[in-house]
Amino acid sequence: MAAANTDSPPLSVKENVTPINSKIAEISESRAELLNRIQNLKNDLQSWRSKLDTQVKTYRDELSDLKKTLNVEVDQLRSEFQELRTTLQQQQEDVTVSLKNLGLQDVSGDVKDTEGSKDTEGSKDIESSKEKEETP
Q1: If you ran DSSP here, which 8-state letter would residue 27 be given?
Q2: Interatomic CA distance for residues 40 and 34, integer angstroms
Q3: Which has more confidence, 17 or 35?
Q4: Are 83 and 77 a contacting pair, CB within 8 Å?
Q5: How many CA atoms are closer than 13 Å to the CA of 51, on its beta-carbon side?
Q6: Contact call for residues 98 and 107 (beta carbons, < 8 A)
Q7: Does the reported pTM lie above 0.70?
Q8: How far is Cα 28 from Cα 35, in angstroms, rounded to an integer?
């Protein structure tokens, strides 16, 4: 049926195999290089991930310690403020009781009024002395 082209010389099997073998060798080498690069990238990624996990754990531990320390300090401050509040309330009660015992509880209001009137009188004295100095 279809006749082979008799004008061109038939290729030997060796001539066909040599270019194919060299191409296969190039492709295999290229494939090996790519696989090697991929493996190196995987190793790098794994190393990076491991380092990152370690850093995250370290930071979490540090934050946890800082949080605990802060909570302890806040509790101490609350306790100290509560003690101060209690002490001040006790002192206020002691002063009130002392004033009652001395009968000065109602007088304390009178003392403030008296001091206010003294300030007013002192101001008036200063003003009148200034007027006298200014008058020739």
Answers
A1: H
A2: 10
A3: 35
A4: no
A5: 6
A6: no
A7: no
A8: 10
Percent of the chain residues past pLDDT 90, beyond the cut: 54
Tokens at 96, concatenated: 């009130």
Distances (CA, A) of 79 to 43, 65, 68, 84, 86: 54, 21, 17, 9, 10
Q: What share of the chain is helix, strand, coil (3-state, %, to 5)?
A: 85, 0, 15
Which long-range CB contacts under 8 A does 122-127 form with residues at least 24 apart? none
User: What pLDDT score does 72 carry?
Assistant: 97
Q: What's the CA gap between 90 and 131, in Å, rounded?
A: 51
Secondary structure, 3-state, 71-91:
HHHHHHHHHHHHHHHHHHHHH
Mean pLDDT of 13-41: 86
Q: What is the pLDDT of residues 53-104, one digit of tens each?
A: 999 999 999 999 999 999 999 999 999 999 999 999 999 999 999 988 888 6
- The number of residues in the chain equals 136
Is residue 96 within 8 Å of 105, Cβ to Cβ?
yes
